Amino acid sequence: MIRLVRAEFTKLTTTRLIYGLTAAMAAFAALTVVANVIIAGEQGDPLSAYSLPALVAAPVTLLSGAALLLGILGMATEFRHQTVTQTFLVTPHRGRVVAAKLVAYPLAGIVLTLTILAFTAAVATGWLAAKGITPSLVGAIGVALGHVLLGAVLAAGLCALIGVGVAALVRNQVAALVGVAVWVLVVEGLLMSLVNAPSLGKWLPSAAAAALTNPGGAHLSRLAGTLLLAAYALALAAAGTRLVVRRDIT
Amino acid sequence: MAVITIQGLTKRFGEVVAVDDLSFEVDQGTVVGFLGPNGAGKTTTLRMLLGLVSPTAGSARIDGKPYRELTDPVRHVGAVLEASSFHPGRSARNHLRVVATAAGLPLTRADEVLAQVGLAEAAHRRVGGFSLGMRQRLGLATALLGDPQVLILDEPANGLDPEGVHWLRGLLRQLADQGRTVLVSSHVLAEVAQTVDQVVIIAAGRLVTQSTLAALTARTDQLVRVRTPQADTLRSLLAAQGIQAHPDGTDQLLAVGTTTEAVGRAAAAAGVVIYEMGAERSNLEDVFLQLTTKQGVHS
Predict the structure, then answer these.
(1) Predicted model pTM
(2) Are A85 and B52 within 8 A, CB to CB?
(3) B209 and B175, same domain (yes or no)
(4) Which alpha helices (DSSP H) does chain B contain, by range?
């Protein structure tokens, strides 16, 4: 099992995807810091030592999307390029292959998230330092940062898990990507307006993810959000695994 | 001893019966050509043998076990299926390293098999830029990674240029000389005729014949071509003597497994007019075509 997870990491690190994605996320994170520093004072509070957690939290939602993308591509590229044939020749116990992906891509999503957040924190700290502000990590700021990181790590891991599950179900890479985008951007909104009950909206997958990435407001608590998102992820992963194990690879 | 055992293997895709009650065996240390026209069910059979497709009925076993139950399948069986199953953005060497990692093989094997198939120079190039022939070589390198005793190759000559086909023959011969068992499919008999000991011929999902190449060669040279205005009469006359004859065009018959003397006597006895008659030196390809076209199946 460990060697299968390692094989997944070898797959991930031997194509350009992860490097391009990391660079894009780093660029986006740097932009969010710049944007937040510029608007600070005009909208919301002026910059202070307490701005650091909010600056670091800015790219978290997009990072959970990046983790979702990693999960989808980790599974769907196998079908797109038919490498799944070779993969299943090496490991005919297909459930183990899917299990290895369910371990590898959440880990990859978490590593990506922590890397980008560390970079974001470094840029933000540097900028604050240039303005003569030195945040102390002891006390309230440190606790707030810890909450941001915890939420980001949970969201990235679970979103990558969902990605693997969705791609195992759909198999077609484009369909999986478009399907997830349509679900998040259109279907959830339609469902909300159809049932006309905003209180139900928080039970939808992207609202559960938002409970981790943007806690507070109408969202569920972080624990409830984690459990709900994990339930969605496991249901999708179980259904996807079942299909992948049974389907003919032609 | 049979290394590969196919028994009553059947696969239905909806209404289509791709493989129909197919049975044959491949003995240890033999090179067997698995032949049939495109669409005969060769690929589906091999995919069932490799655990990728589930049979509707019957079984396909390697050393007595279904592929999915083999421990360490890569050290046991090497397979080349289609030439396109590589990530185009990954280098040849990294592709092999992924497989080696998953199979628990030393990563140094990647460079060894690349050298073995003549791809050492291209090791660091992305597979997306590879020619079809290079992909076939990389597929073979992947199959050889675990140094397996059994090789299953699906149309490995597809896309190879004449030099590549020549190289492939040499490699197959070399693998066979090392005592490995090879099952190699092709839709062109000539591609494998110089390499294989035995042939398994299928058409429309069913077994047509399994024989040694020598026995197949013996079936050549036994055709008699007759041009006659009474083709149907002669055909039933010959059939009464147990000689199969197939119409070939409007006024021609092709009698199988007989001599010009026998056909001449039968025609003379019944007063059948013959314009032309001759023994034909059919080649292996003719035999193959005869066996796999519709009339051949009934012969």
Answers:
(1) 0.84
(2) yes
(3) yes
(4) 42-49, 73-76, 92-103, 108-116, 132-144, 162-177, 189-193, 213-218, 231-240, 260-270, 284-292, 294-298
Question: In terms of domains, do B183 and B146 share one?
Answer: yes
Residue B162 lies in a domain: yes
Considering the domain architecture, whether residues B253 and B121 belong to the same structural domain is answered as: no
* Prediction ipTM score: 0.87
Question: Does B183 share its domain with B276?
Answer: no
Q: Angle CA(A78)–CA(A75)–CA(B53) in degrees, nearest 5?
A: 55
Residues of chain A in contact with residue B47, where contact means CB-CB under 8 angstroms, are 248-250
Q: Suggest the residue from B12, B48, B52 to mutate for an interface test with chain A (most A CBs closer than 10 A).
A: B52
Q: What's the token pair of residue B57?
A: 């009925």
Question: Hey, is A100 helix, strand or coil?
Answer: helix
Instruction: Identify all chain B residues contacting A87, using CB atoms and an 8 Å cutoff.
Output: 102
Q: Which domain holds residue B237?
A: 222-280
Contact present, B93 and B123 (Cβ < 8 Å): yes
Report yes or no on B286 lying in a domain: no
Q: Tell the residue number behind the tokens 């559960």, with chain if given.
A: A208
Both B43 and B98 in a single domain? yes
Per-residue pLDDT, averaged over A69-86, amounts to 93
Residue B97 and residue B112 share a domain: yes
For residue range B76-132, list pLDDT tens digits in order. Answer: 999 999 766 899 999 999 999 999 999 999 999 999 999 999 999 999 999 999 998
Decide if A57 contacts A153 (C-beta within 8 A): no
Q: Is the dihedral of CA B233, B234, B237, B242 positive or negative?
A: negative
Same-domain pairing of B26 and B79? yes
Tokens of B255: 């009698």
